[in-house]
Amino acid sequence: MITTQQYQEDYHRSIDDPEGFWGEQAKKFITWFSPWEKVLSGGFDQLDVRWFQGGKLNAAYNCLDRHLEIHPEQAAIIWEGDDPNESKILTYQALYDQVCRFSNVLKQYDVKKGDRVCIYLPMIPEAAIAMLACARIGAIHSVVFGGFSAEALKSRILDADCQIVITANEGIRGHKIVPLKQQVDIALQECPRVRTVIVVKRTANSVPWNQERDVWYHEAMSKAHPHCPAEVMDADDPLFILYTSGSTGKPKGILHSTGGYLVYVAMTHQLVFDYRPGEVYWCSADVGWVTGHSYSIYGPLLNGATTLLFEGVPHYPTPSRYWDVIDKHKVNIFYTAPTAIRALRREGDHWVTRTSRQSLRILGSVGEPINPEAWEWYYHIVAEKRCPIVDTWWQTETGGIMISPLPGTTPLKPDSATWPFFGIVPMIVDDQGNPVPDGKMGNLIIKKPWPGMMQTVYRDRDRFVNTYFKPFPGCYTTGDQAHCDVEGYYWIAGRSDDVIKVSGHRIGTQEVESALIQHQGVSEAAVVAMPDPIKGQSIYAFVTLKTGIQPSDQLKKECVQAVRETIGPIATPEHIQWTEGLPKTRSGKIMRRLLRKIANNDVSDLGDLTTLADPSVVDALIKERRNVK
Ligand code: PRX
User: Is 361 in the pocket of ligand 1 (CB under 6 A)?
Assistant: First the structure.
């Protein structure tokens, strides 16, 4: 723990002398096979940033091998199953053995350095084993969240050109079966280059089998050799691809490096959670999201921590589950999303107060703004005012936490992500890129490179440049709106682009719109966000039907189904409004600003409508809105 003054001094040094500062951190947090030639080269002007150029290392070696000398018998992973009677511990030694074996399995199936491996698994230790095994042999993992549909899985497999998929026969969440292998089978009908599917047997149920392609994980592991050397990787060799939604088109494959990413997640994990040796740390995010990558797997394992992986859901078997797990495993640090906090708050305090939670020392929040009510409840009821709350702001693209309190160091303000992490230079600007005065809302941009930042969009550098660096040349565009107060505290309001955060999950409006128009009765669709007391935001869809097609409840169900099949249940529209026409400008652009107001029943001041091609649609939309519950 450092003092506030120490933070300020170190922060200034990290900005004034980034090479000196990050060179020290890289030595402190990571074991290098050979040192770098230059800490930082290039910059945002030419977009040629490179961190630790020439340095050699391996991610799995840093997460495992080096800890074996110190604490081989310490728990690396505590796994808590969906069923409260099922849990298991993998020590660092056991995890190392499993990772080595699986690395050899991957090699046996011809996976080489630089190949992409798709991981579509539930929250079981094999997810961590598969990721680390890829890292060990220099393959690039692309984890796809198990809640994504076959269609979404297919497009991610094709985009990354994966030739191998790791999955499970089925997953279990909240006592419900998730048919993972079935989704893989459907996806692979259109992925001819996938030659191998390795299947973890998570349940006793049998699944259709393709003899030429499918391999049982346990059978392959039982024959695999328990040692595998760690591949020597360059600092800027890619470690993983993770797909995320943007405001336009299909999801982007965010590519992260090995050296810079590892330095950044190790340091942020250590400082933001003030991790102390021997503590149990639990990040409730699924490994399918960046939080799961950086703060369930890489960050904690790099620091030799015990990380808890939870297969289930907050409500099963009761709304006490999170707090029961905390008591059962004596969790010291707990990191979750505001949506879970709000959902559990609604269930009543007694589900919390009947548990002890004495082990808790620090609480974290991530993924969306945490409203003051949820913050206060987390602090007063869950933490009993004993634990600081770290509200951490960051993104898939940033690799690690960018704005967050440091516990015991930063004086907290409920609902603010507070101050930037070391090396991070945020700024709030208007749409022309001019800095705005303190307290005024604007676009959040980042002025200088940091080691955790994405390298590019996989195989689409133009998209990388245009999305993140074109709006404000020389700076990284976050796509978020925020303000900064006179004490330098950042307050993140939410996205400024067409991205919706549903229960903290990032969903592009265009993706939902294209899913809706796949239905043969639909002519056009426009999707906007609506505030939701639990999910933060929900999806509101305006749908125009083809001539002759009548709206009906059945049709609504089919439209919802089309979205679930194209993306997954997380993108389910909460409301569908049938409409005769969408408000378009004379150049044919849908006026989303107007749709947002109509969806939110905020129609007293609709702003400037002079550019509308047909102003009469507005009255019709407002009238139709009344029919939507
Ligand atoms: O809008 C911000 C919101 O989540 C977005 C990034 O989403 P994703 O890439 O899925 O990563 C989520 C986990 C890091 C951001 O652009 N967001 C994230 N954390 C916060 C937040 N909004 C407010 N407060 C936060 N603490």
Answer: no
